[in-house]
Amino acid sequence: MNQSPLRLLLVDDEAGFTEVLGKRLRRRGITVQVAQSGANALRILRENDFDAAVLDLKMVDMDGIEVLKIFKKMVPGLPVIMLTGHGSEEAARDGLNAGAADYLLKPCDIDELLGKITAAVAAARS
Amino acid sequence: MSDGHYYQSLRRSMVAWVVTVSLAPLLVCAAVLGHQFHTAYRAKVVAHLQELVLKHKQNVDAFLHESSAEMRVLTELAPFSDFTDERRLSALLGTMQKEHGGMFVDLALVGPEGGLLSYAGPFRLGRADYADSSWFKDAKTRDVTISDVFLGLRGLPHFVVTVKCPHDGRDYLVRSTIDFAVFNRLVENIAQGATGQAFIVNAKGELQTTPKKGVQVDVAFLRNKIWNGPGSAAELATDAVAVFNHEDPATGREAVYVVTPLKDGQWALVYQQDVADAFPSLYRARLLALAIVAVGGCGILAAAILLARRMVGRIASADEERDLLNDQVIEAGKLASVGELAAGIAHEINNPVAIMMEEAGWITDILADADFSSAENMTEMHRALDQIRQQGTRCKEITHKLLSFARKTDSRLKELDLNALAAEMAELSDKRARYVNVRIKTNLAPNLPHVAGSPSELQQLLLNLINNAMDAMERNGGDLTIATRLVGDKVELAVSDTGHGIPKAVIGRIFEPFFTTKAVGKGTGLGLSICYGIVKKIGGEITVESAPEQGATFRISLPVAACPEPAADAAATASPS
Questions:
Q1: Which residues of chain A are at the B interface, by a Cβ-Cβ cutoff of 8 Å?
Q2: By the CB < 8 Å criterion, does B407 face chain A?
Q3: Which ranges of B234-279 does DSSP label H, i.e. alpha helix?
């Protein structure tokens, strides 16, 4: 359906995780830019346009929910998928309340993640 | 052992305290009031006795005075010849007797040497000689003499009134015998109670009147006390009264004595009465007080013992409960800290596992593109990747389970029908049950109140317990019973099996995370920990009973939901999603 590739911002302080997940997503035709910290993510978002973001809930420098709130202020229409290792519905619910489009538990299935991203982007565009 | 000793000493000190605190005021009260009453009552009774004795003393003194006065008048008025002539003497006696009743028994004239000169009266005395009689010797020294009581020639107790009658320069004596019976009656009438009796003693301690029959008189004591001791009758003023107590060594009875002098201190009027008889109300009151103190004391002692026993029982059971609670708190705290630790580990492991799985996924992606010549290697590589993915998924499940055990936040609570849930889970497990030769039975109490809980969590709880039970019976099959009932204000769910049971050594640890008796790879050791977490979270209790080879029963006690709702909705929410 889409001619231009999806531009995705992937935010997680686990370098090993972002590297391999980035490669797998790019392989599936998505333009991925990785941010290793909350501050880094905010800077990248200020300078570039994205169709969606995948954001880890727990990072060393900033709380994922805080980052999400700033994202929503900077780019209100940006669909954000939260990634969480907590296994906690509460943390995820907080994310949804703060404006996240959806959430996924780590470790996640690539196809499931991809499905959620495309669904969120479609919902944001419509 | 030491506990028993502790409670025993506690009980003893409680009894001692209660008895001391309640008995001391009782005793002090009894003693003070008793003393007050004793003093007041005794003073009153003694005053009464003093009055009685004084009144009779006056009577006796009056009697003696009257008799001596009469004699004096007679000797002064009658010519001396009247006394020498026995006929005229009889006439004089007749006149005196007419005026004074039978008081004067006879009348006689005694010569200066003691010889009886003339006599009028009932006795035949002849020419008696009184020269050696003590009364005669006394009478010679005074104008008017009243003798002590003596037997004399006639052999009967009597006393005489003698008046000097000078004639021709010589002292003759006119003598009259006083009727002892009449005199005795004066004193005999002073009697009260059973033992109260008055009598007269002379200076030698000899009785001058006859006390009533049965009245013992301690003559030796009276002589010493009344005539020789300090404050004796001899020292008393004429109208004074002495009161003292004395215990007769012969009879062992204590008596009160009221003494007053008579006849110018030559005699003493003594009133004697047993103390018990003299103060009957005092003794009755004392007896009553003693009885009240005794009965009250016994009552207090019994109540103290009973009370102490009951209170110590309460304390003991409270201590026991507290110990039990302490154990539970320690157990719960241990589980909670283990849970937190587990959650931390789970969280830390989660990220590496995620990376491993992504890397495995990446290799799969690459393999899809690359051209590998050996199909055999290819298959092997795919198998290895599958295995990595599979084991990664297993890790993920473990960490998620761990996190859900440690999770503190509540899932939303709903009211549910435990019966519907139990029936549903029993049905769901039926297939596996038949496979391992287990019969699932349900024994559900009708009209069971709803409980408040998360439907998915309670499903998980039941499934975990059912799976554990079936695992325990996997080898030989058996019966699995799911029962519900209402116990007080709690709903109890019991899952029992007839499997190999839980060894005693491990029964205390089965709710700890990662504790399992199952073979490696078969169980995570988290099932019961999760059950424990679920039950605790909704305010319930989970316990287990088991004996080796006799199966195990898990009992879960859950609080009844605040306001019970119709079952329809709850049953719907209980169905698996």
A1: 14, 16-17, 20-21, 23-24, 27, 85-90, 105-108, 110
A2: yes
A3: 275-278
